[in-house]
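Recap slide: Putative 2-succinyl-6-hydroxy-2,4-cyclohexadiene-1-carboxylate synthase, sequence and predicted structure.
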Amino acid sequence: MCLQHKVASIFNSWHNAPVTLLYSNYRKATPAPNTSSSAIPLVLLHGLLGRGDDWQPLIQSLPGQACLTIDLPGHGNSPFRLHTVPIKPGKRKTINELLEDDDGFVQTAQLIEQVLDQHGISQCHLLGYSLGGRLAQYFACHYPHKVKQLIIESAHPGLTEHSARQQRWQHDYQWAQRFDQEPIRDVLAKWYQQPVFSDLSQPQMQDLIARRCDNRTYDIAAMLLATSLSRQADLSQALRKAAFPVHYLCGGQDKKFSALADSLSKSSNSITKHIFPASGHNIHRFEPLKYNQTLMQLLAAYQ
């Protein structure tokens, strides 16, 4: 069965399924003497192929801070239960209609809100990396009352040109096919050859491949398409006008996202760029000490 029919079949089978909350892990605040932990919880969203536990080394460096990690749909212990649209143009959807349909973002944001409500969190510091950063931007722009401050790590605010969105759709669809059809170790070896990961050493790359081999490949393919950058609205203007502060964290070796951070921060007083010169795309993993120091300062500033 081709990827398109697999996706359609499983979406149909889940259409009337009960809503399933995303898996989450909440460490409540335990303020210690002489610490600057914030009473407002920190909510952390991981990237594609990751899981909430990716943030544990960072959380351990934040004594007393309330922290909530969430496994995004199709990742870790969270099932992929998004009822989204067909994934290829056809009689029901033209390519233009397909790219305008952001239902994967809408539903994921609703699921995140449900997790916050489950834990009694009325407002949070929201931190997201890569895919998690894109979802964090979407959530913050649509649920601004829930967000004290938005912290984005290496995440795209959205494409502006329709031609770029079409190209990105083809790119993501090809990767989804690979995840669905090829051995995951082989796909990951190709995945980490992409330019955005060019700063990784061979040992670092092999470590990431080993860590990500336990992913459910079909779920990854489905989530990749449901939340493709090609289907994400351009949120840059909404971020520039946001009532909450926005902090964009980027690696100096990640030229693409450093340029995006420049563009956003230069056009708005509410958006601040934080650059980590020695880092590439994944700052929190490969420059943890400086990352942790920056994060603690931001949490202390917006209590």
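The domain at 3-301 is CATH 3.40.50.1820 (Rossmann fold).
The chain has one domain: 3-301.
(End of recap.)
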